[in-house]
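Let us begin with a simple case.
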Amino acid sequence: MADAWTRRHGKVGSAVTVEAPQGIPRSWFVPVVYKDRLLGFFELSLDLVPQRYSSFQRREGALDGCPPAVDWLDPETIRRRAQARLDSGETAGKPYLSFDALPARLAWAVPVTSTDRGERILFVAGDAVFEGRAPGEFTGGPG
């Protein structure tokens, strides 16, 4: 599914479970990296059938569109990004790979809690951090 340069130089990383917002496993995210860059990823169904390959490369062999791999693969980096958007009194929980409303919009979900505001979700996709829907308001699901 990937181009010839990626097949020759890219390394397939460890699979990460993609969870539906309700915490139900939905698919597998399998990164393809070169040095410190994320070239793209495979998404596989739970029974390991390839669903898609998505590339960050703008052209074969080019790395200029490829994000640092830690932005997508390191939960602590992802949690720190979310923490930068916290309001006073909020705490960021453990990130999990999920999606924003539609399964094709993969992003790390970071549960955020506070004693006065309850819980909300911040999504982190690369270097972008944005507000998610309140728990129970997701339109995405396990299907």
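The second case is a distinct protein. As before, the sequence precedes its structure tokens.
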Amino acid sequence: MKKKTLVLRYTDVEREFLFEDKLFVIEDKKLIENIEKPSIKNSEAKLVIKSLNNAHVSDVIQVKINMNETGYFLVSFAKDSLGEEKRKALLEEIGKLKSNAVQSNSTQLKKAKRVVSILNKYKPIYATFINDGEYKVNISKLSLEEFAFPLLVLKKPEKKFVVRPKAQKQKSNSKNSKPKKVYSAFPLFSADYLFVMLFALLCAFGTITAIFEFKNSENIWIFLGILALAFAIVLIIAVQSTCYKKGKLINPFLRYYLIIFILIGVAGGIVGGFYVSQLVLKTEIADFDYKNLIILSSAISAPVCLSALSTSRLANLIVKKKYEKKN
């Protein structure tokens, strides 16, 4: 029996989309906005599945299949077609695709084909594929597979503000000139930068409170000092994971860019530590020199935090060796 054609219909305008059991590349911006989100977050979509008794696109059982550093599949099933046992069996089959093999565009294409092969057994209503990671699946080759469901590949334009190193002119006649290294662009804002700023803040906060308690002859300064040191080490790890990917430097300018976030973090930690010291920890010294406390703490925490930009290189050597050994 031939499977019924998938029909999607807008609820706010007279427009429909018909899909057969094969791969479709979707470039329609409005349609992408209506089907790119997981069903649990998609209740506001202006789209229904006409071929499923006008069920809303969020009124389905959905399984998300992540492909590391590549993208993900969102697979939609009718509520009465995927019981708990069937769902567990599907997840078990998908789980077997995980491996420690070195990833590439080729390996991820093979994995995408295997995902399609598994989904063919379970025959979902449809599935979307978002290839927004580092590795790109060859859609033309993937489309040659046999499909028992419509696969909608969402082609989304990259909207990312990036900083690229300035191109340098090369002399065409120079025979001995070495090829210039090409580095990846990096975004102007990322959650990784916030972690760098946070750990710089905590390191500075620990430093100023430790110095405050030291001046007050309180033994707790030792604990606060150890805490500040611990956050300094975590900061090094955060900088390494931000500036390097698989042991390779993303962009040399990124280290300099992180100086902004580190200094903001240090300033926030010093200000926060000052008020905590003054209002919470307090002191019995009548003429306590808070100005000297701020200067001394800044002079210690700022260089320590900024040194993470250099010491992250040493941390990366360890990560790089582990990664090479693993491969």
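The chain has two domains: 6-154, 186-326. Confidence is low (pLDDT under 50) at residues 167-175.
Keep these points in mind for the review questions at the end of the chapter.
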